[in-house]
Amino acid sequence: MFRGPSAARQVFLVLSLLIATPATTAAAERELAGAVEDFIEVEVATVGMATPHGAPVVLLREPGGGAMIPIFIGHDSAHAILLALRDAQLPRPLTHDLLGDVIGSLDARLTRVYVDDIADDTFLGMLELEVAGRDEPVRVDTRPSDGIALALRAGASIHVAPKVLDEARLINYRGLDEDEQVVTAVGITVMAPTVMLREALGLPDRDGVVVTEAIGTARGAGLEPGALVLAVNGETPESPMGFLRLVHATPEDERVRIRYWLNGATEEVLLHTRVPDRPGQNL
User: Fold this and answer.
1) Which of 127, 151, 160 is nearest to 18 (CA)?
2) What CA–CA distance (Å, rounded) separates 41 from 139?
């Protein structure tokens, strides 16, 4: 009985055609909705739930005091994004890991992901790839949730159209339960300091959130996984979502002031609210 190519093989074949040919019909089906220079770069903050119906959303942080941007995603994508925020290393590749491996094997690199339009209450997205031997980037239509999950693994930047920002601000949302929350802002990823984490890391019995990853300026300033964030702009974050709210409340013309405990010493750093570069695989 003929079963056809596997899902992985189909993905490989489609991307091969898009990248290997100068201008395919598939790649030209939808153009980017807007001028590249008008898009706003954002940082993936966390995954939450829309209210009142409970659909998962990914929360994007607009730098400079803008609103948090919730975008509807599927449950599978929510799981994939949370795994990426936790920097979880899995024994076998999931779908987004597979797609990243395929892109890399074709001598291409994912550089940007766009959330560029809304049509019939559905968010639309686009991947932008640099391909060896081609002067112009290749753009491929995508669900924003898939694009964002892939961007987190690839270290690609994420850009949202102003129209999408305005529409998404109308969506109400809440955070996950505290023990599930993983939040990133200004290059610092935090989660709640569970009893197990406190014991494993030797954390003091003080309120705050524990750092699981630090990149860019935050890492260069001394923040490392295992640090306990004690205060943001002088206030104690009571949860990961509380940490996000305090960072987001920083005035546009000021830096975020982070006080933290690490290896028995208490330090303080000042960080820009801009979106930091996110290192990743060279996909």
Assistant:
1) 127
2) 17
Q: What CA–CA distance (Å, rounded) separates 244 from 209?
A: 11
On the question of pLDDT at 15 being above 60, the answer is no
Per-residue pLDDT of 99-148, as tens digits, reads 777 787 778 889 999 999 998 888 999 999 998 888 889 999 999 988 99
Q: With helix as H, strand as E and coil as C, how does the chain read?
A: CCCCCCHHHHHHHHHHHHHHCCCCCCCCCCCCCCCHHHCEEEEEEEEEEECCCCCEEEEEECCCCCCEEEEECCHHHHHHHHHHHCCCCCCCCCHHHHHHHHHHHCCEEEEEEEEEEEECCEEEEEEEEEECCCCCCEEEEECHHHHHHHHHHHCCEEEECHHHHHHHCCCCEEECCHHHCEEEECCEEEECCCHHHHHHHCCCCCCCEEEEEECHHHHHCCCCCCCEEEEECCECCCCHHHHHHHHHCCCCCCCEEEEEEECCEEEEEEECCCCCCCCCCCC
**pLDDT per residue over 189-245, tens digit each?**
999 998 888 888 899 999 999 999 898 889 988 999 999 999 999 999 999 999 999
Q: What one-letter code names the amino acid at 93? A: P
Tell me the domain boundaries of the chain: 7-174, 177-271
- CB count, 10 Å around CB of 15? 20
CB 63 within 8 A of CB 183: no
Looking at the structure, give the CATH architecture of the domain made up of residues 177-271.
Roll (2.30)
Q: Does pTM top 0.85 for this prediction?
A: no
Q: What CATH number was assigned to the domain covering residues 7-174? A: 3.10.690.10
CA distance 95 to 107: 19
